[in-house]
Amino acid sequence: MVRTWLLLAVSFVCTAAEPEFLARRQALAAALPDGVVALYGEVERENADLRNGFHQDSDFYYLTGWKAPGAALLIEPRRQILFAPPRDPRRERWTGLQPALDNPDVRDALGFGIVLPPATLESELRESLKRYSKIYTVGPEAAAKVKAIAPAAEIANAETAIARLRMKKSPHEAELLQHAADVSIAAHLAAWKRAAPGLYEYQIAATLLAAYLDRGCERSAYAPIVGSGPNSVYPHYAGNSRRMDRGDLLLVDAAAECAGYAADVTRTVPVGGRFSARQREIYGIVLGAQQAAIAAVKPGAYIGGAPGAPGRPSIQKAAMDYINSHGKDLHGDTLGKYFIHGISHHIGLDVHDPADNGVPLEEGMVISVEPGIYIPEENIGIRIEDMVLVTGDGARVMTAALPRDPARIEKALRK
Ligand SMILES: [Mn+2]
Questions:
Q1: What does the pLDDT read at residue 134?
Q2: CA of 96 to the centre of ligand 1 (A)
Q3: Is the pLDDT of residue 308 over 70?
Q4: What is 2-164's CATH number?
């Protein structure tokens, strides 16, 4: 009985390697040495949770490993306290057993010396304010709560400091992201097997979702985008309701979330198994732009141009320059105006992970590289998106096992 409970508790809280949570809090305290950090975890919201289930705030999970609602966190260099509600037998009658903070095994797993009920946050924060006059927190709601407790204290934003930590993935996080990538690749391949004229976009979405859950992943990392023919030109199309015709392009931007970590993958394939000459021409330009962009990924590089230095070499510029120097639209114009979104974002616990884009890329960061060309007039929308790990001297494509070359895609579609 005890043994079973222990396993349950541990499976609840420990998807990252346990010591990492403690190390992250220590790194945050070191980054913000002039104040105390006070953060609030997500609370239960009945309507939202009914649809999607409870989901812990990503910053809070990153620092605590704690997934249950109603918790708070206090960090200063000399002490770290997790505030979490005690077990509630009435609630557990509905939810099953919840991780228990009076269980020292759970407490030790997360590296907390002190765990207290949430009502004591106020007095502990006041205690910290004997040593610090500044309170770091994240978000207007939390800032208001903290202000109510300590009206005289200076309130500062911890968002950037936490984002800088989250940008750089540990080897264990890179493994978790690779697993989410591998599952997403398998899902895309299953979708390709199924794609055919006469099928509906939602049937492709169904195949993708089944592949994630079947492999033990908890959910889609984001709402799947399955856009065929005229729908392929909308980068965030979410209707997934059209019947596909032979000769359509099928743009699939879909990926799994596994053990809390998101993947992000897009491929564009021809319904019926063969690109038209024009589709293949534009596809080749998007692929060339992606290769140019990936070649630009290395430590020290920037995703986008700086506001003060728009011409700064960047991954965005590498892709845009390629697109603008290859191909034409039906009016003889260059194609850059059809590349309407950013080339990259960081990926981690969130599919759009928080980032400080003033900081150049470093080894261990994971970003998307996703050029696209969308020409409504021609019903041509093509995006190719891969997950890329920044290495010591360049980049490793984590989703390289999913074909990108048009001939290989056509071959894979022939069942
Ligand atoms: Mn993306």
A1: 96
A2: 36
A3: no
A4: 3.40.350.10
